[in-house]
Automatic annotation (TrEMBL):
Keywords: Cell shape, Cell wall biogenesis/degradation, Hydrolase, Peptidoglycan synthesis, Signal
Superkingdom: Bacteria
PANTHER family on file: D-ALANYL-D-ALANINE CARBOXYPEPTIDASE, TRAFFICKING PROTEIN PARTICLE COMPLEX SUBUNIT 12
Signal sequence segment: 1-25
GO process annotations (BP): cell wall organization; peptidoglycan biosynthetic process; proteolysis; regulation of cell shape
Name of the protein described by the UniProt record: Peptidase S11 D-alanyl-D-alanine carboxypeptidase A N-terminal domain-containing protein
The keyword Cell wall biogenesis/degradation is annotated on this UniProt entry: yes
Similarity comment: Belongs to the peptidase S11 family.
SUPFAM superfamilies: beta-lactamase/transpeptidase-like
Origin organism lineage: Bacteria, Pseudomonadati, Pseudomonadota, Alphaproteobacteria, Hyphomicrobiales
Keyword Signal annotated: yes
């Protein structure tokens, strides 16, 4: 197949890049926004509407876990800490574990429930136990986003359930994924959890790339009717490491195919070597 020569701009994450190879056209048509970042160089290899405001859906839970990881490292909670489930948390819409008001769930189980099942009741439980109320925790999430350089992200809840004011961008989600990996490497491995068993039920991770795309080690899917199908993913092969975000896919299959196509297209341009420190 004939290759077209494209103008290439390799800039830092804050600036972005534009690339238009043929097979990216199909990927672009399947999603509303996308970004591919080289974790070793800090460069952006591809963008499509990277700063367009979109609903994050359950990508929200990456920030919920980022804050929880900070509490874990500080010793404010442990994996065995029992989180109390309120009526508010139990009443969250599916998907959820079906937690009952007045019951408890251990921190380690709540983490795995968010990563695999994307459980909204577990997300609200984390929020209330750490922030007092979910509303207050959402303010913590937004402030943390600002501190990380996520300039266009606002959170209103811990789960990603529909809220017109809860917005993000592909670029901001890439920034968040980068910080999770570099700020909390001891906890990031949870995002590679493929299955989680809780009270006799086994849950499979919604991130299909973990099961069939070489080198995938996380991180999170998301979907609501308003957002479409979202995915933040991390792939390591040898000493190369790419992170991608796609938002607004029409179907889960098209979203996943778009992500794979974008990774495939840019793998050759990824820098081999040690990663740069998060900014």
């Amino acid at each position: 197949m004939r290759r077209f020569v494209c103008l290439k701009l390799v800039l830092l994450l804050s600036l972005g890049a534009v690339l238009t190879p043929i097979n990216q056209a199909a990927a672009a048509s399947a999603v509303k926004a996308a970004i591919i970042v080289d974790m070793n160089s800090g460069s952006v290899l591809y963008t499509q509407a990277p700063d367009a405001l979109r609903s994050p859906a359950s990508l929200t839970k990456i920030m919920t876990l980022y804050i929880l990881f900070a509490y874990l490292r500080a010793g404010k909670v442990t994996y065995d800490t029992d989180l109390k489930v309120s009526a508010h948390a139990a009443s969250q819409s599916p998907t959820k574990l079906g937690l009952k008001p007045g019951s408890t769930i251990k921190v380690v189980d709540a983490i795995k429930a968010l990563v695999t099942k994307s459980a909204n009741d577990a997300a609200a439980t984390i929020a209330e136990n750490l922030g007092g109320t979910e509303e207050n925790f959402a303010r913590m999430m937004t402030q943390t986003a600002r501190n990380l350089g996520m300039k266009n992200t606002t959170f209103r809840n811990a789960s990603g359930l529909p809220n017109d004011e809860q917005l993000t961008t592909a670029r901001d989600m890439a920034i968040l994924a980068t910080h999770v990996m570099k700020d909390y490497p001891e906890y990031y491995g949870h995002f590679e959890t493929r299955y989680f068993t809780y009270k006799g039920r086994k849950y499979r991770n919604h991130n299909r790339l973990l099961f069939g795309y070489k080198g995938t080690d996380g991180i999170k899917t998301g979907y609501t009717r308003a957002s479409g199908f979202n995915l933040t993913a991390s792939v390591k092969r040898g000493d190369k490491h790419l992170v991608g975000v796609v938002l607004g896919g029409r179907t889960g299959a098209q979203r996943d195919a778009a992500m794979r196509a974008l990774f495939d297209q840019h793998w050759a341009k990824a820098r081999a070597g040690s990663p740069r420190q998060a900014r």
